[in-house]
Amino acid sequence: MPVRSFNREQNWLLPPSLDELLPTDHPARFVAMIIDSQDKAGWEKLEIKIEGEERGAPNYHPRVMLGVWLYGFMNGIRSSRKLEAACRDQIPFLWLTGWQHPDHNSLWRFYKEHRLKMRLLFKMTVKTAVKMNLLDLAVQAIDGTKMGANAAKDRTFDRNGLQKLLERTEKRIEELEKENESGLDPAPVHLPEKLKQAEQLRTEVKKALEKLADEEADKHLNLTDSETKLVKTRQGVTPGYNMQAAVSPVKGSQQKQVLITAEEVVMDANDTQQLIPVIEQARENSGEKAAVTLADAGYHSGKNLVDCEDIKQSVVMPEGETKKISQPYHKDHFTYQPESDSYICPQGQTLTYRGLKKVHNETRRVYRGNVENCLNCHAFGTCTHDRHNGRELKIGEYEKQLRRHREWMKSEEARQLYRQRKMLIEMVFGTIKEALGMRRFWLRGLQKVRSEAAMMATAFNLKTLFSLWRQQPGEHAKWFQAFHEVSQALAG
Questions:
Q1: pLDDT score at 460
Q2: Can you tell me whether residue 78 is helix, strand or coil?
Q3: Is the domain 128-147+233-314+407-450 a CATH 3.90.1070 member?
Q4: Whole-angstrom distance, CA of residue 171 vs CA of residue 174
Q5: DSSP-based three-state secondary structure for 354
């Protein structure tokens, strides 16, 4: 078989146009379509001046800068320096910029100035999906994942650790000052670098101690990012944040595609407090409440069940202690007698009210059986091992809702619904971490991290919407109009 000849120095007989270098169904064109659909009001909502300033050196057009960042996040590029390189040698970026080459400083300044308002782009993707009748709100899945922060673990201290570090730092400063004392020689114009670093560390430690002054003794604080917490990830315990998301499937998608309908980053390592806020954000973004919400055991609590009832939200959510619930002498098998405010155990013995008790910051009613009856019962050793008090029940204020939800979770309908959760939500976090390369945040501070997470959620949705857009080549004008109308609605 002959070999094709080639020549790297061959000249073009007719130079190609920039538009010819990019396929008509390329994702860069989809990004450009979204940006071009924004009118003046849309740009003003993002607090971006589309006209530029009358004086001074000309800036790159906002359409160029926003296009580079959106397409960069869609391809796992979050570094302004890597984006600068891409704008020099990657055809999609060259097409988006019109063959311009913004430097990393210009790219970073644009992102830094507008990243908080750019969170609005995420809401736009959700509302556009709704307008195109793509979102299936028969079910939504909610989950959280721990994401590493841009901070080292060895910079995390409790109050005692900070105090010891301060003592070592002040001792080091004293030593460095003695080293720099030089008799009649004039004092240096600038502080020596080591002394400057030590004094800066002393200032950081003092600020951290002030911040922990009114906190608990076991409170920890990271000197690099004071808003991060120690979280458990697959890589071990590390400073990080808790990223929350809600997702719903795409209608009629054979590839099980999903869209993120809500996203948030919180400092809490626990998911329990995040269920209702994420549900409410998903409803606000999509304009409609999902019929059923799927959540794992990390969100389970009596209060969450009550709150879901208040907003009429059906929820499928298992408990963490399933083994205890299945035991024959779990408190669910004790029958409440409202006329006497007592419980009857499975063996027919009565447990009477004995007072209130604080358990995990929650006040519970305590019921206890007769000690002699418990000791003589054949279930002693299985029901209870307490030889001094007998069997004890601690009943919280949400006991009725917990029991009712346990019965619902036993139904075949609930079990079938819950099987969808893992397929819906865990794939999203896997894609964000593996395909989009976001295993940890690059920015520091909760507000900055939230903007970074919102951009990543926007990029995930854009990739899903692009795949649907590419399947409908005759509907591109309809997509443009949908983005335009959503932009106008958000701006208004």
A1: 96
A2: coil
A3: no
A4: 5
A5: strand
